[in-house]
Design a protein that fits this description.
The complex is a heterodimer of chains A (74) and B (189). Chain A is of the alpha+beta class. Chain A has one domain. Chain A contains one helix and six strands. Chain A has a five-stranded mixed beta sheet with strand order 2-1-5-3-4, covered by helices on one side. Chain A starts with a strand and ends with a strand. With 189 residues, chain B is α+β, with helices and mostly antiparallel strands. Chain B has a five-stranded antiparallel beta sheet with strand order 1-2-3-4-5, sandwiched between helices. In chain B, a hairpin with a 3-residue loop joins strand 2 and strand 3. In chain B, helix 1 packs antiparallel against helix 2, helix 3 packs antiparallel against helix 4 and helix 3 packs parallel to helix 5. Chain B is elongated and about 65 Å long. The mean pLDDT of chain B is 93. At the A-B interface, strand 4 and strand 6 of A face helix 3, strand 4 and helix 5 of B.
């Protein structure tokens, strides 16, 4: 089961869960994914130490997709 | 990165040397002016210390967590993103150790410290998530993911707060952050 989570005030919230063999849930997750990107979130798939990829389409094979806010120089 | 370090050192020297010159010149020219020379010496000592204090600020905890359960949840996610030794360090110190192309990074909620290969010089960067109310561990996770996505971009967005010897920074930190810096220095060696 893959998960779409958003880092927020609660620590993180799970927005969607899906498996590749359930097209309805994949489509629902993709819709939520797009809505979050429109709100300014970045979507990231961590690939272990030292590597992560920013994605603009929901990667349905990824076990975990994390939504984060942009960073800025302090 | 190396050039940024040299430029930082050069700018510090440019700021400090005139005070040293004044201190020596006044003391030699007129012993009566030795107290003023001492004040100039103090300025020459204080300037690098102030920069180091600013650098240490990137590893200090700044905001209060909205709730303990949110912090626990956020720390759980951060731990999932790290390998075992870095996870243990994060749980103990709140700081995430991440090896990178430019050296070993130590990430806090208000910025990151990059320990260059060899472990002698480090760069302190101010960088944050402009989102109020996030738990500390979530802030660290934000920066960790951004760093993993694009290390050069991360160093470009961040503002350099201090560059210099690791001992200058360590003496400005609390014991936990000092341990974390030591771990980063070991990782960079």
């Amino acid at each position: 089961m893959s998960r779409l989570i958003r880092m927020d005030r609660t620590g993180h919230s799970t927005l969607a869960e899906w498996s590749v063999d359930d097209p309805a849930r994949v489509e629902a997750a993709a819709a939520k994914f797009r809505a979050q990107l429109e709100q300014g979130y970045y979507a990231v798939v961590s690939e272990g130490q030292g590597r992560a990829e920013q994605v603009r389409e929901l990667p349905i094979d990824a076990p975990l997709v994390i939504l984060r806010r942009p960073i800025a120089g302090g | 990165m190396r050039r940024a370090g040299y430029l930082w050192t050069l700018s510090t020297v440019v700021l400090v040397v005139p005070f040293l010159g004044v201190a020596v010149g006044l003391s030699v020219a007129k012993p009566l002016l030795i107290p003023i020379g001492v004040i100039a010496l103090a300025h020459a000592w204080i300037i690098p210390e102030l920069y180091a204090a600013r650098g240490a600020g990137v590893l200090r905890r700044r905001r209060r967590t909205p709730s303990a359960s949110a912090e626990r949840t956020a720390l759980g996610l951060l731990a999932d993103l790290l390998d075992h030794p870095a996870r243990e360090l994060a749980q103990r110190t709140g700081l995430a150790l991440e090896p990178g192309r430019f050296g070993a990074w130590l990430i806090g909620e208000a910025g990151a410290v990059l320990v260059r290969p060899g472990g002698h010089r480090l760069h302190c960067y101010c960088v944050t998530v402009p989102e109020p109310g996030l738990p500390s561990a979530d802030r660290v996770a934000h920066l960790l993911l951004a760093l993993r996505e694009d290390e050069a971009g991360f160093a470009t967005i961040a503002n350099l707060a201090f560059s210099g010897a690791s001992w200058r920074l360590r003496r400005r930190l609390g014991p936990l952050a000092r341990d974390a810096v030591s771990a980063a220095v070991d990782a960079a060696r």
